[in-house]
Design goal:
Helix content: 25-40%
Shape: elongated
Distance between the termini: 31 Å
CATH superfamily of one domain: Valyl/Leucyl/Isoleucyl-tRNA synthetase, editing domain
Strand order of the largest sheet: 6-5-14-16
CATH class of one domain: Alpha Beta
Length: about 725
């Protein structure tokens, strides 16, 4: 009898088995023994180089590994491509925090030195999460690891930029954008996090100006009351807006108000975007410091007066009494001045959502800034058509709504960032006194002042801006396979087949990959999008490392093993619903692994030294008939759910069959099947058959233990379980 330890110890098995897989070469599609060379590709959503494996990563990696292992066993030329993202703001912030410990800022050491330190950080810590993927059992092709700042990847990013620019989709303009003063950069709407805060609603009197024009009738009102949560921005007001249907104010449209403190006249305008029910129905309009106000200002051709600077202090536009003050100081000063003037009607407590930077939690300011933008209308239409046509499918389908809602209301994408770490925008400006030349690549308006390309003329300096991290990440399925070069990998593995990811980056990343693939390569980058569950605490709250409610999957692996951890994750993944985390399911996974181990020891003992050439059992007894019938049903149902990406359902079916039908019932019955040699031998074969087929079916879910047990099965095998044939449906 082949040796199998009395008890299962994952620490004795897992590292050894992973080394066997790596040595076999089967993680690389070029080395697979299958005759079926049809490719099947997944590119892993690249984690940040700053990160370590969190529980969401572990769930997503397990889902992808289940898919890739099944396809590999089905004979596909499977590529699961790993890699990491440079994660601009996130990585720069981490390294800046390290500098802060030394009493330094990035400005103290300069741009080149900071970038050098970030590369050093990447070399030291960048592979941490990739090694953790290995611990989990992820069967990725480690010969193809990619990084979004690799030299080849940088060329892909520049090629994409040139393409959009030459097509007239990229432009530079001064617009009101989201600004983080801590990170000193612009942010897109999708990079904001909204958090509720207790504040006040100030009701401020704006005095009406007596009008001498006969066309406009003076009225008995002396002022309009405006409600605002930000009295400091009133210093930059250029109008007060009301809804044209609001009967309270119809007769005042066209009149002027005297802006308190600043003592300049501003008009009362009518705009349909104003909510009649909010506050008093009259809204101050500050086009420089509110995105909605900026739209109103553009429609009504209002002047833009910037009163808040990028450093978070008030500009000279705020007037002498507030210039140079911090925003909070200015707010206090404005309220004091208004109270002196008896222009505050009342103050009410008010709870509202405040936009914060998704990386450093700083309150975001809207302010005008010169930035680079990507026009989105045409690209959004392509992205929507890809899903509407069925070329790309969401699983579960309900996530299409988020996708379409965003694309139907899309704005041009602010693609420039004012940080130091990232892909520098390939735009060059003439130095002072340098004669401006026309860009030879295009005749698009305003290009005479800049050069866009790889070979700038003398005395031209490259822009300091870098591209939004998501601009480069949007190229992931393409650039990782060699685009824009026509590589063999691009030819063989693009488009990919499956993307598994979280709901919170459907718009940040998924939509952008889709339009990038269609626009740049003429094909959607993947066919199926799996939006996996979000793992919450047992109480249904979001996990938080800072609050001590996060779960470290490496702790689970250390305590229970990778297979048990994978089991616990997938067991709770049911119907795409969020998971209320319960560690007892990981414990159940450990118990199941023990059951699998012990039942294999029983089958080995029953078969002795005999090694079967083939496993074709007959149904000689009622127990035989029953187990073969229920096994066929379990196999069929499990396959059905796996193909629908309902992995939790599939695991429940396999678990119930193996534990209850095979172990509890058939193994017990097999001990009694001793009537004659024919039945005894058939029972041995049937035990080995059910065990071997079960190991195949369970391998994608719990790969380590199944590979280990496959090695000792009493059958003549061709190869490792990782490339064994998948059980026929």
């Amino acid at each position: 009898m082949r040796e199998l330890a009395p008890q299962y110890d994952p620490k004795e098995v897992e590292d050894k088995i992973y080394k066997i897989w790596e040595k076999s070469g089967y993680l690389n599609p070029d080395n697979l023994p299958s005759k079926n060379k049809k490719p099947f590709t997944i590119t892993v959503p690249p984690p940040n180089i700053t990160g370590s494996l969190h529980i969401g990563h572990a769930l997503n990696a397990t889902i992808q590994d289940i898919i890739i292992r099944k396809k590999r066993m089905e004979g596909f030329k499977t590529l699961w491509l790993p890699g990491t993202d440079h994660a601009g703001i996130a990585t720069q912030n981490v390294v800046e925090k390290e500098l802060k410990k030394e009493g330094l800022t990035r400005h103290d050491i300069g741009k080149d030195k900071l970038i050098e330190k970030i590369w050093q950080w990447k070399e030291k810590y960048g592979d941490t999460i990739l090694n953790q993927f290995k611990k989990l059992g992820s069967s990725m092709d480690w010969s193809r690891v990619r990084f979004t700042m690799d030299k080849e990847y940088q060329e892909a990013v520049k090629t994409a930029f040139f393409h959009y620019y030459e097509k007239g989709l990229i432009y530079r303009a001064e617009r009101v954008i989201n600004w983080c003063q801590r990170c000193a950069t612009s942010l897109s709407d999708l990079e904001l996090e909204y958090k509720e805060a207790d504040s006040n609603l100030w009701f401020i009197k704006y005095p009406l100006v007596k009008n001498s024009e006969p066309k406009i009738q003076n009225t008995k009102e002396e002022y309009i009351i405006v409600a605002t949560t930000r009295p400091e921005t009133m210093l930059g007001d250029t109008a007060v807006a009301v809804n044209p249907k609001d009967e309270r104010y119809k007769h005042l449209v066209g009149r002027n108000l005297l802006l308190p403190i600043q003592n300049r006249e501003i008009p009362i305008i009518a705009d349909e975007k104003i909510e009649i029910e909010f506050g008093t129905g009259a809204v101050k309009v500050t086009p420089a410091h509110d995105l909605l106000d900026a739209d109103i200002g553009e429609r009504h051709k209002l002047p833009i007066l910037k009163v808040i600077g990028q450093n978070g202090r008030m500009t000279d536009g705020a007037g002498k009494i507030c210039e140079g003050l911090k925003i909070s100081e200015c707010r206090k000063k404005v309220v004091e001045e208004l109270q002196k003037l008896n222009l505050i009607d009342k103050i009410e407590p008010y709870k509202h959502s405040i936009a914060r930077c998704y990386r450093c939690n700083t309150i975001i300011e809207a302010l005008p800034s010169m930035q680079w933008f990507l026009k989105m209308d045409e690209l959004a239409k392509k992205a929507m058509e890809s899903v509407k046509s069925g070329k790309v499918k969401f699983h579960p389908k309900r996530w299409e709504k988020i996708y379409f809602d965003w694309l139907n209301n899309i704005k041009d994408w602010t693609i420039s960032r004012q940080i130091w770490w990232g892909h520098r925008i390939p735009v060059f400006y003439p130095n002072e006194k340098q004669e401006k030349i026309r860009n030879p690549k295009s005749e698009i308006r305003n290009k005479s002042e800049i050069y866009v390309g790889n070979s700038p003329p003398k005395n031209y300096t490259q822009s300091d801006d870098v591209l939004d991290t998501w601009f480069s990440s949007a190229l992931w399925p393409l650039a990782t396979l060699g685009w824009p070069d026509k590589t063999e990998d691009l030819k063989n593995f693009y488009p990919t087949q499956v993307l598994s990811t979280a709901r919170d980056i459907i718009n940040l990343w998924v939509s952008r990959m889709i339009f990038s693939g269609v626009e740049l390569a003429g094909k959607e980058p993947f066919e199926d999008i799996i939006i996996h569950a979000t793992i919450l605490t047992k109480e249904g709250k979001r996990m938080s490392k800072s609050l001590g409610t996060g779960i470290d999957p490496m702790d689970l692996i250390e305590k229970y093993g990778a297979d048990a951890t994978r089991f616990g994750l997938i067991w709770q993944q049911m119907g795409g619903q969020d998971i209320h985390w319960a560690e007892e399911h990981v414990i159940a996974g450990k118990k199941f692994c023990n059951k699998l181990w012990n039942s294999t020891r029983f089958v080995l003992m029953r078969n002795g030294e005999k090694e079967h050439d083939n496993l074709k059992p007959k149904a000689l007894t009622d127990a035989d008939k029953h187990i073969l019938a229920v096994f066929e049903k379990a196999k069929k149902d499990a396959n059905k759910y796996i193909e629908k990406y309902e992995f939790g359902q599939a695991l429940h079916i396999l678990y119930d069959f193996y534990w209850h039908e095979f172990c509890d019932i058939y193994i017990e019955n097999s001990k009694k099947q001793t009537e004659n040699d024919k039945i005894i031998e058939n029972t041995r074969i049937l035990l080995a058959h059910i065990l071997s087929e079960s190991l195949k079916l369970m391998h994608p879910f719990i790969p380590y233990i199944t590979e280990q047990l496959w090695e000792v099965l009493p059958i003549k095998k061709k190869d490792l379980l990782i490339v064994e044939g998948w059980p026929a449906k």
